[in-house]
Amino acid sequence: MTSEVLARALNTNPVVVRRLMGGLREHGYVHSEKGHGGGWTLSCQLDQVTLRDIYEALDAPRLFAIGNRSEETECLVEEVVNHAMSSVLTDVKAQFLARFGQITLAALHADFHQKLAERFSGGLT
Questions:
Q1: Within this chain, do residues 88 and 119 fall inside the same structural domain, yes or no?
Q2: Domain count, the chain
Q3: What separation, in Å, do the N-terminal and C-terminal C-alpha atoms of the chain show?
Q4: Hey, what's the signal peptide range on this chain (predicted)?
Q5: Best exposed site among 24, 30, 93, 113 by fewest CB in 10 Å?
Q6: What are residue 41's phi and psi, to 5 degrees?
Q7: What is the dihedral of CA 83, 92, 95, 100, to 10 degrees?
Q8: Using CA atoms, how far apart are residues 106 and 95, in angstroms rounded to an integer?
Q9: Listed residue (62, 60, 61, 54) closest to 26, CA to CA
Q10: CA 118 to CA 115: how far, in whole Å?
Q11: In tens digits, what is the pLDDT along the chain, a chain of 125 residues?
């Protein structure tokens, strides 16, 4: 698929898609061809790649919108809150990454096709 087609499906700008896909290409998960009939194609074994692999290939984007505003603070209240939040966010991130490491692209592919079949067989509205 082209960046433009993917961008329409994701409701974003093709430049955003090209930037993301470039990171995936660097890790060998996709490749691209220019010109007529070109676009992005998967180039990996779906059962060998996990969501964690993809997350890491995209330079491990920030998971949480909340977090410590500053690591070094003179405010005792902020220090205590930062310590509590850091501990929780570290635990949640570890759980998140562990679970992402269990989900393969093959599992997502199978789930997609199952839901697609259900939708077109009248199982979903």
A1: yes
A2: 2
A3: 27
A4: none
A5: 113
A6: -135, 140
A7: -130
A8: 21
A9: 54
A10: 5
A11: 999 999 999 999 999 999 999 999 999 999 999 888 889 999 999 999 999 999 999 999 888 877 777 778 888 998 888 888 888 999 999 999 999 999 999 999 999 999 999 988 875 55
